[in-house]
Amino acid sequence: MNKRINIYISMALMVAISLASCKKHDETDGHRHDAKGNDMENNSSLKKSIKKTEEEHDEEIILTQEQVDILNIEMDTISKRNMSGHIQVNGQLGVPPQNEAVVTTTLGANVNKIMVVEGDKVRKGQTLAYISHPDIITKQTDYLQACNKLTFLEQDYNRQKKLYDANVGSGRDYQQAKSALLSAKGLVKGYESQLKLLGLSPKSVRAGNITQVAPIRSPIDGFIEKVQVKSGQYVQPQTALFEIVNIEHIHADLMVFEKDINKVKNGQLVKIKVEALGNKEMIAKIYAVGKSFEEGPKALHVHAEIENKDKNLIPGMYVNARILTNDSLEQALPEDAVFREGETFYIFTVEKKEDGTWIFTPKEVMVKSTSSGFVAFNFKDEIEKSTLVAQSGAYYLMAEMKKSEAEHSH
């Protein structure tokens, strides 16, 4: 029994010594090993090397010629382009004062009949409504009486003149006849002017045509913007009945802040977008720069005539605009060749490999301006002038890169 116990103790000591020896050998070796005896540290270095290679690979995209053709990517060196500087402004559409009209009446009357509705196109002199009042009849009869009296006074003047010329009549009677005639002529002219203001024809009244209503006529060509009365309504003199606007000379009324006003002058081109029309871009030219500031915010009115007007433009529509200030020669690419990620912009340089594939590498750029579909920029790190760059397809290239990154992450 004791002999068997001693054998077990001896075997245990041998195992312990062997384990201690192995541990010492590992520490002396300076490397850790895995369960299969592989060098764990060397394995880690290998993984790091693979990871680094993958990260470097993620910074470029390799496409075949067929893929390039499918994506329709054009390649060329960077050229310089005439780029326009600009000022970003906003405002609204308006018309000159002479292209707007408020229609009123010169005497108190009742609205007898309305002939138009809002949105109707009208021409100058067209009847918009009729008004009625006893005073309208009175003015016609007064005019008719003044005309009849004028006829009598003209005859009396001619008689007195003949007598005076023949030294038969007295000079006093001749002077009185002449004075009465001139007064009557003035009175008739006054009545004629009143009738014309009422839209009535003096010639028709002299023919005995007395009307009970007077027409309200449009003073300009344009469109009815507002109808502010109803049939039967009594309106005081100078009450606004209709508002008319002529959009033939509709223009952009822009607000330019004080810091930018020294860059603005007559003749400059303006690119305008009207949000209500789907941001359709129109071209305008500045024809007037205001000379007094609006307060809160401090800005100046700048007026620009629109060249390619849309028939749906309406005064009061909100507009965004860019005033083109100066031209400069800049290296530029089409907008489709520039990709934005957050606040950073990229383009892709291109290199062709011996096997016919293409390598696309993103390069960070700093955008300076955008004009007519082109982007002017500077490279963060300059490249050779002979380097090919992608002239289009930046969005698709970046999408391919992100897809590649996602595959490597798995």
What does this structure look like?
The protein has seven helices and 21 strands. Helix content is 33%, strand content 35%. The protein has a six-stranded antiparallel barrel. A four-stranded antiparallel sheet has the order 4-11-9-6, with no helix packed on it. A four-stranded antiparallel sheet has the order 8-7-5-10. With 410 residues, the protein is of the alpha+beta class.
Q: Radius of gyration, Cα only, in angstroms?
A: 46 Å
Unreliable segments of 5+ consecutive residues: 1-58
> In percent, how much strand structure appears in the residues?
35-45%
Elements, N to C (H/E)? HHEHEEEEEEHHHEEEEEEEEEEEEEEH
Write a short abstract of this structure.
This protein is an alpha+beta fold.
List the keywords.
4-stranded antiparallel beta sheet, disordered N terminus, 410 residues, 6-stranded antiparallel beta barrel, 7 helices, alpha+beta
Helices, strands, pairings?
Elements: H1 2-29, H2 40-58, E1 61-63, H3 65-71, E2 75-76, E3 79-94, E4 100-103, E5 109-114, E6 121-122, E7 127-132, H4 134-165, H5 171-197, H6 202-206, E8 213-217, E9 222-227, E10 234-235, E11 242-245, E12 251-257, E13 269-274, E14 280-294, E15 299-306, E16 318-334, E17 339-341, E18 344-352, E19 358-371, E20 374-379, E21 388-390, H7 394-409
Antiparallel strand pairs: 1-19, 2-21, 3-12, 3-16, 4-11, 5-7, 5-10, 6-9, 7-8, 9-11, 12-15, 13-14, 13-16, 14-15, 16-20, 17-18, 18-19, 18-21, 19-20
Helix pairs in contact: 4-5
